[in-house]
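Hi R.,

Here's the chain you asked about this morning:
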Amino acid sequence: MTSPMKPLIAPAATSRRSLSATKVTLAHGGGGRAMRDLIDDVFVAAFANPDMGDMDDQARLDLARFTAIGDRLAFTTDGFVVDPVEFPGGDVGKLAVYGTVNDLAVGGARPLHLSCAVIIEEGADVALLRRLAASMRAAADECGVTIVTGDTKVVGRGQADKVFITTAGVGAIPAGRMLGTRRVCAGDAILVNGPIGDHGATIMAARGDMALEADIRSDCRALTPLIEALLAASPDTRFIRDATRGGIASTLSELAGEAGLGIRLEEKAIPVREQVRGICEILGLDPLYLANEGTFIAAVPAEAAAAAVAALRALPGGEGAAVIGRATAERPGGVVLDTVFGGSRIVDMLFGEQLPRIC
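And here is the predicted structure, written out as tokens:
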């Protein structure tokens, strides 16, 4: 993280010096020795891997690794500004890795490489940066990806909030995998891999603004193993998307609109933890709109639904998988929820923001 568009890695890693500072100063973003020490001691030490190559101004990746997997390249990018940066079940570093890997995986890609750009506020603790870098490395190792390039910037006090991270990722899509909203058909089953709203509820409780106490952790996780299991059990899966900001309500509203179909949900079938339900009741929120970071919605052929759910339930993060509704030709572009009270209501896309800086 040297200067704009430079790689994450300092050119002469063999001359690394230990960083003595405990707080980040503007000098750590100035392009000189202080910045070099920060990069070497915090980021190079955590992310070192053979894919970094000669540590020039870009990562140079072997195309053979991509073509051995599939015939198409997947590429995505995302920014992460969650507050607080560390929370039960995760942190902004882990969130950045998992979030980008998941954006590739829900399109059917097998993630391979990430970039990492970090914006640091003057005065941030170096110890915090070390924890975040270690967390990113552990998450990357778990996902089987490498962080190969990046950048760093330091801004003045009050111009950011500790640490913001932007990651981009590339992967390969195996031949024959075709996922998308246009493939969804009336009669398809709509399923979710587990309880909804854990991440949003965790962040609300972690901020401490409303004196909420709940034994709840973010669902921040890598979705690749679950998605691969789903695709193995249901090769003709139509659509997968992670339900992050806006929750499953917004994801399903997008699906209905893009597919030109209706979606009918059964409230009693939607898994919600009691802790999350309790927080929502206290604050007057709807769990359908709470953010998730390890939860996805999928549309599969009705005849494959039982096998898909069984495959998900056999893996961590999929124990609560369930069919929650179906696609229908009725009410094209709309989502209807059959409530536990015997009535029904329209579920629309989230308007505004329930909770800013959720991821």
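One quick note: The first strand starts at residue 72 and ends at 80.

Cheers,
M.
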